[in-house]
Specification:
The chain is built from 9 helices and 7 strands. A 7-stranded mixed sheet has the order 3-2-1-4-5-7-6, with helices on both faces. The structure holds S-adenosylmethionine.
Length: 230
Amino acid sequence: MTRASLDKQPHEVASMFDDVAANYDLTNDVLSLGQDRRWRKEVAKAVNARPAEKVLDLAAGTATSSLTFAATGAYVVPCDFSLGMLREGKKRHGWMPFTAGDATRLPFADEVFDAVTISFGLRNVQDTDLALRELYRVTKPGGRVVICEFSHPTWAPFRTVYEEYLMRALPPTARAVSSNPDAYVYLAESIRDWPDQPALAARLQGAGWSKVAWRNLTGGVVALHRGVRA
Ligand SMILES: C[S@@+](CC[C@H](N)C(=O)[O-])C[C@H]1O[C@@H](n2cnc3c(N)ncnc32)[C@H](O)[C@@H]1O
């Protein structure tokens, strides 16, 4: 069983997700106490995919995140570099155009997507800034980006309780439900290490995105960042 570390070596990250692919969605539901479904609805609202628009769902995994965009009639491309996650997705949603690709070298031409989005994926990419620039490259001028990622609760007492949950309760719970509990130790560590809301917004601006803003969900446990390609 593979567990990535904070240097996020791509082959370790990919094989860690290969290992958890079969139980990934169930484990998410349990560990997020069902909140993930609400977060996904908010991402869909923020992306606001319209019929026939081309939407890239990067780090799509099993494509659970992609389904909400496809429901509006948009053409959604789920892309990921874990073949295990892609295979699991293909079994369930064979009609979707699953594409193998690395976030730092996207297999798409310049300026092809109306919207690009990434849910719970950017934190796992070794070079965040390069991935943000790649997302920018493949987006049409006027197109938009939405990033859904774990973040940092803004109210200090809640932040303390949440960090306790992450570091103490999450790993034993994961042991009960996941095929690779160590992957959830990485999850906790990588969330703690991730930039806070203003810092991620600055990274988006640095990659060229305009009108960057964010909204907190569940008190900042998750943040939705958005931006536009001018
Ligand atoms: C936590 S899962 C999220 C899956 C899905 N977006 C969701 O919301 O359920 C993170 C995904 O990011 C993918 N990933 C991590 N680094 C990547 C990279 N450099 N290129 C493409 N995919 C990557 C992993 O393979 C994994 O499937």
